[in-house]
Specification:
The protein is α+β, with helices and mostly antiparallel strands and 482 residues long. It has 3 domains: 46 residues, Cytochrome C Oxidase, Chain J (Irregular), CATH 4.10.91; 299 residues, Catalase HpII,  Chain A, domain 1; 56 residues, no CATH class. The protein is 26% helix and 16% strand. The protein contains 12 helices and 10 strands. Strands 1, 2, 3, 4, 5, 6, 7, 8, 9 and 10 form a 10-stranded antiparallel β-sheet that branches.
Amino acid sequence: MKEKYLTTNQGVPVSDNQNSVSVGERGPVLLQDVHLIEKLAHFDRERIPERVVHARGAGAHGYFQVYKSMAKFTCAKFLQSPEEKTPVFVRFSTVVGSSGSADTFRDPRGFAVKFYTDDGNYDLVGNDLPVFFIRDAIKFPDMVHAFKPAPDTNIPVSSSANSRFWDFISQTPESTHMITWLFSDRGTVKSYRKIEGFGVNTYIWTNQEGKSVYIKYHWKPKAGVETIDRHEATLLAGVDPDIATRDLYDTIAQGKGVEYELKVQIMEMEDELKQNFDPLDPTKTWPEDKFPLMPVGKMVLDRNPENYFAEVEQAAFCPASIVPGIELSADKLLQGRSFSYADTQRYRLGPNYLQLPINRPKAAVCNNQQNGPMQYGPSGKGTVNFEPSTLEGGAQKEAPAVPAFRQRLDGVVTRRKISLTNDFEQAGERYRGLGKVDSDHLVDNIVDSLGKANREIQQRMVANLTKADAEFGKRVAEGLKL
């Protein structure tokens, strides 16, 4: 077996990694110790900016396999052949907590899947809860600011800064539905193998004939759904804060595949305005009795990352990473996400973040994007870095057109809330659909957290919960002694 020797980043052998170059045994260290300088300079730069949200994560590699061709609904190549296995990388995460926070704190969980398809990367970036707090991306910075530690004390909302969280939520009626999910036991988990995943936003599938439908994505875990109550979550945060991360890693390391089934809900375009809610509103779900779940395929995670930083920390996802046959709807939250995610990665990782192995498409890349920090994979050679060109044989050509969603847009440019908000009906239905134990936990969890906010905020929040369901609001009010 060939010996492995230490080297510098330039590949130069290192014969002494214990002692700096100095003047004599005890003299000052010399700047000419290039190995010392390289080690310290690299160490100084080992940390990249933490993700503003989804900072703490775990990941795994695997594959996706469609059950049968989805050609009736979409021309996306990776959804056509049951014989094809599309490589995937999945990153699970908590949303609000920092990179050092516990896996079990009450929080939505990110469920982001990168499909390395023959037509380029497709990122399905979702959460473990089917709805979200807001419907317009313009409110996202304020939402995250309200949920993150206070700017004056740096105290997080999970401890004594709850007034910040509830102040925002109580004045954002569309959040009421999300609260019924987040403050149920679905908001506290200890295993990424046992959570559902949702695309949350509405997407569009278009087939080869140009027919389009609206789509909602659902991931169903083969191991079933498991939650914990807030008391176990608090205990585990102290004694085993990495439980979900370790559970995923250990299960795969033991050779046990982690499997999820992908299902979709489909809505015909002509049915969009026939609902009592806006189907593009991410604070709403589509009723499954009207839009049943259709099985699409399975995803198996069977390989752990070899290096956490290179693969999990540097993994970059963006809802705008779509492939032919899949398109973005006019969902206002999704429209903002399609810019913000990629822009975040350009800041964190640099403009060439897609050249990193974990983010690099399996499909060939050919364009004229060039230079910038960390550029190491130029897409072409020679004198041509523009298009159109006839030089060098006209190396680049536009790809054949594919069917796309055709939508006529006609309206006044304005800043307006959608007209069909209906912000409380589904929240009430969700509450009434819970069993006794689950509804008791929901009320108790809200009372425990909201009880740390001031009276004015409590009263506003109870008013919203009462609009969702009179009994729901009354029980929370009684718990708060209002």
